[in-house]
Amino acid sequence: MPKLGVPLVHKNGPFVGPQTFMNVPYSTDFSTAEAVVLGVPFDGGLHPTRIGSRTGPASIREHSQLVRPFQPPHATFNPLELLQVVDCGDADTTPSIIEESFIEIEEAASEIYSGKAVPLALGGDGNITLPLLRAASKAHSDLVVVHIDAHTDTYRGDGNQDYMRFNVATTFTRAAEEALIDVESSIHVGARGPTNDSGVFNHTRDVGYGLIDSTELFNAGLRNTAKNIVESLKGRSVYLCFDMDFFDPSCAPGVCTPTWGGATSREGLDFLQNLTGLNLVGADINTVSPPHDISGMTAFLAATVGLEILSVICHSKGLVE
User: How far apart are CA 67 and CA 51, in angstroms?
Assistant: First the structure.
């Protein structure tokens, strides 16, 4: 394992390898890895004002160089070493080309699932979760989702054209229709207004999902809510979808759909830490939009979210007590 901040130099000459998440080794050999970082540089190209999350993986990797592996007092272990994390590069996507890109994303994730590793995907917009769930559901038949986001992404999305059915607002509507997950055990956390549809929360519940909106979340307390989620999903295979607009724009401005009233960086990271106990079998971090970021602060925070998720995976795999 190379030291953090030191470029990975291959033995076949004076060449520096590609920039990877926290400078872990680049590899497509998953035989020893317990977790694999996968970049998914895709966005649907439909947002009316903010196109740019297709460059999210590169920015998260760049700013991950600022992240250190130990997190005392709650995590005094190095998850990169315990999980033998590798970064396999990016899925071969073409932004705005939905069907072909979804196939490529699913195939890339499926290769990771063919071994014992857990994929941690770096997006990319909220579209990426659907093909990732398609791959995860093939590997784990009892899959449930914990979706942490300012939006439920469970709009109706009626229509015959791909862009109407498959977009960032319909990801979990389609996931339910495709029976990729146990909908009734899956939970959306942190949704808040303003929205374009006054009935979207009711529709989300009508589809069958659990929904803890932001008012309920902050009234109950983020830490208590996290612990309740862990207790309710004990023994289940959990896919964690983390949209960076869960955070308030004051600490995560570079997202596709910034929404005021979200978690502070401290609150959001503490919430993740208290998800320890979930059996994470896959995860993604999405919606970082570098053209709208300020000094890389959103990408830096997203990289820290990635480290927190890897720490939870260490517990999932029984590598730490």
Answer: 26
Q: Does residue 35 contact residue 43 with C-beta atoms inside 8 Å? A: no
Residues counted in the chain: 321
Q: Sheet of 86-90: strands edge to edge?
A: 86-90, 35-40, 118-123, 279-286, 237-243, 143-148, 187-189, 210-212
The predicted structure's pLDDT at residue 158: 63
> What CATH number does the domain located at 21-316 have?
3.40.800.10
> pTM higher than 0.90, yes or no?
yes
Single-letter amino acid, residue 291: P
State residue 275 phi and psi, 5-degree precision.
Answer: -85, 0
| Residue 287, token pair as written in the block | 């919606």
**pLDDT tens track for 12-28:** 567 777 899 999 999 99
Residue 6: predicted pLDDT: 44
Tell me if 131 sits within 8 A of 97, measured CB to CB.
no
pLDDT tens by residue, 299-310: 999 999 999 999
Using alpha carbons only, give the angle 39, 40, 44 rounded to the nearest 5 degrees: 160
Give residue limits of the domains in the chain. 21-316
Distance CA 113, CA 140 (A): 10
